[in-house]
Amino acid sequence: MLTTTLTRDSLRTAIPTLDGTLRLDGLDGPVDVVRDSLGIPHVRATSTHDAFFAQGFVTAQDRLWHMEYDRRRAMGRWAEYVGPTGVDQDRLMRKFRLATSARADYAILNDETRAMLDAYSAGVNAFITTPILPIEYELVDGRPEPWESWHSLAVFKVRHALMGSLGNKLWRLRILKTLGPEWVARLRPGSGEEALLVVPPGATFADVPDGCDESETLLRGLGEIDGGSNNWVVHGPRTASGKPLLAGDPHRALDTPNVYYQNHLTCPEFDAIGYSFVGTPGMTHFAHNQHVAWGVTTANSDQKDLFIERFKPGDPSQYEVKGEWQRAERHQETISVRGGESVDVDVTVTRHGPIMIGDPQNGLALALGYAAITEPNRTFEAFLPMLRARTVAELDEAKRSWVDPDNNFVMADTDGTIGYLTRGQVPVRSLANAWMPVPGWDGEHEWQGLIPFEEMPRARNPEQGFIATANQRVVGEDYPHHLSLDWSTPHRAQRINARLRPITGATPADMASIHADKVSIPSRAFVALAKALTPADAPSAEARDRLLAWDGTMGPQDVGATIYAAFREQITAAILAGEQLRPLVESQGRWEMKGAPAMSLATRLRAPIYALLVKRDTSVLPAGESWATLGAKALAAAVAWLADALGPDQNAWRWDRLHRTGPHHTLSAAFPEYGELLDPPSVGVGGDGDTPQAGSFAAADGKDFTLAAMSVTRYCFDLSDWDNSGWTSPLGASGHPGSPHYADQVSAWSAQQLHPMLYSWDRIEAAAETRQHLEPA
Question: Which among 492, 550, 486 is positioned nearest to 524, based on CA atoms?
């Protein structure tokens, strides 16, 4: 246990020394590490091995506790540090078998990829042997175990395992079992508007009629049982230089510290700068080298299936396959719990994958088909070819081995070429698999291989001069394979395209202004509803007038944004209180994976309710209500709540008073007495989930607008002059709560400003805050 009281002084003493010379076992030659004024490390090595060794070392210097957190989560060992609150998550990860699959993946990787992982691991371990370790280990009375090479694969998996189509299939199952099959299509997210496609760029698509192959009787027999991003690239006369500009911002929950790590690696083979996943080598998502740049968003590809397995009565070790019983892999694992009794977990694996939901003892359970954990996964073999690529064509080819996660991968090279690829492996199978769980015993829903790499959606130098993605639909009906049923609403894509279509002579500052775009397209429908309703009282009338005068910009100081957000959430709350959707409310917590993040009903229904409002479809409304009458009640409720929360003066209802970040350190819940020291500051921001400046919120009760997902980086790469590029993060480069770089980028981030991305070594040296020289022992 903690032997001394945690103070700001003790936090500062836990920061490792970042100046001077260190002699380290495992290095082949000298390495220089220069940290700039933001504490971002720039590494210069004489070999590829030493570059990755140093990347592991500096990442551990800044983020070892962050690495520990992800490693223990991936292995199902977080409860060892935080006690009973970590058990559900550990149980889920044990069932996922992330550690087992990571070990198996490492064994099949090619030699150069294993050498990269081994060098990175050696660098991490070189830091672990130094005397000053993160303060968190003192809090939990622990010591870091050696970092093994496969741990990097495990932490990469844990950051992506719960993303994608899995939650949507469980959501449709929940609708089916509580409301009936006709509601599955009715509550499917869809704006009712023409959507912009990613491929071909500039094309549009009117959504196909809804329908599904549902197995209602079967599914009703089951037991009870969950972010987005923008990027774009422009070239030619659309930019000031004629060379490409590539920009974007990923939207995720705000981890503390941030999930992405800013760093720069220079060696004879490549000179790359960007963001890495903490605990993994390379720069997989947002980066550039001397010749090419890249950025990603989630493609929403349907990579995961749920198979209903039928187990033999009285014998959960056997399950049915085409009329015969087949033996499942089955064993028990034990979770150690800090301050509590250990917990046993039954792990069952069928031919489709691990059982994630349900108990085989009860006869039916759901197995997860997910290539990243059930098939050979060579994703890491793409890491080095990406860093070495010289053209868009080479960068595209480097993704051939990529399995997961699925991404809209935009790219550009210094010759002026821009491109797009849907990266990630997507199985070929029955369309029924896309909707919800399917029978696993009849052989009718098996995977028939993968979409060939050559047939994945692509674009190169489109006529319109730019490519933009925002998790919207990727392809139209003419695409020969099923890619997905579930796409984000098109509003962010529409705004970004609207900003890019007229642009010429663009600079990075113009790209940053698109990052900062706060115009809400859905707000127009709610303002139109406000115009049609009769206010219930004088405060409602005043709020209505403010809405009608508002321009739809979700600015941090905009009162109209506050009223719109509260009004919309109260409409959702009123609909959920009606008899139509009450069964969904009563089923809260069922048909979900215990230990996985659950999306609130309000969040799930935000897009469907918007679509119904646009069409004035009253099927979802409580009996006797019209949109106008329900809207009047919702506006009155929103105004009353805002007056109570922010005071009666509507001039004071600034959006940033409600719409704020809420960062929490991974241990502040377990040690609340130290929360003030461990948690970074909260800041108010504009935007919402429908605007390019992302700022979605859960609002589970219509009254909490704390950001749930937001831009966790912003970047712009200028391929005419790499030193003209910029980036920023919502916290800082360091994971040490006592570091001046723990949250020093938050002001620029909240103001949508980019810091210079230092790339040339003369500029790096001129801005050096610390210099460290690493030598072989």
Answer: 550
Element of type H or E holding 110: none
Which residues contact residue 207 at a Cβ distance below 8 angstroms, ignoring those fewer than 6 apart?
Answer: 190, 192, 195
Pinpoint the alpha helices (H) of 398-507.
Answer: 432-435, 491-500
Q: Which region holds residue 76: left if phi is over 0, alpha if psi is between -120 and 50, else beta?
A: left
Is the peptide bond between 257 and the residue preceding it cis, with omega within 30 degrees of 0? yes
pLDDT reading at 705 higher than 80? yes
Q: Is 229 a catalytic residue?
A: yes
Under 8 Å between Cβ of 195 and 205: yes
Looking at the DSSP bridge assignments, the partners of residue 322 are none
Q: Which amino acid is at 473?
A: R
Q: What is the DSSP letter of 681?
A: P
Query: Lowest mean pLDDT: which of 597-601, 611-615, 758-762?
Result: 597-601
At 34, give phi and psi (nearest 5°).
-115, 125
Residue 684 DSSP code: B
Say yes or no to pLDDT of 10 above 60: yes
Please write the tens of the pLDDT for every residue from 96-113. 999 999 999 999 999 999
pLDDT tens by residue, 173-194: 888 889 988 898 888 766 555 6
Question: What pLDDT shows up at residue 217?
Answer: 41
Torsion from C-alpha of 433, 439, 442, 448, nearest 10 degrees? 20
pLDDT confidence band for 661 (50 / 70 / 90): very high
Joined tokens for residue 35: 């940290």
CA–CA distances in Å: residue 72 to residues 86, 93, 189, 674, 706: 10, 10, 35, 22, 27
Give me the catalytic one of 101, 121, 165, 229.
229
Residue type, 628: A
More confident residue, 584 or 595: 584
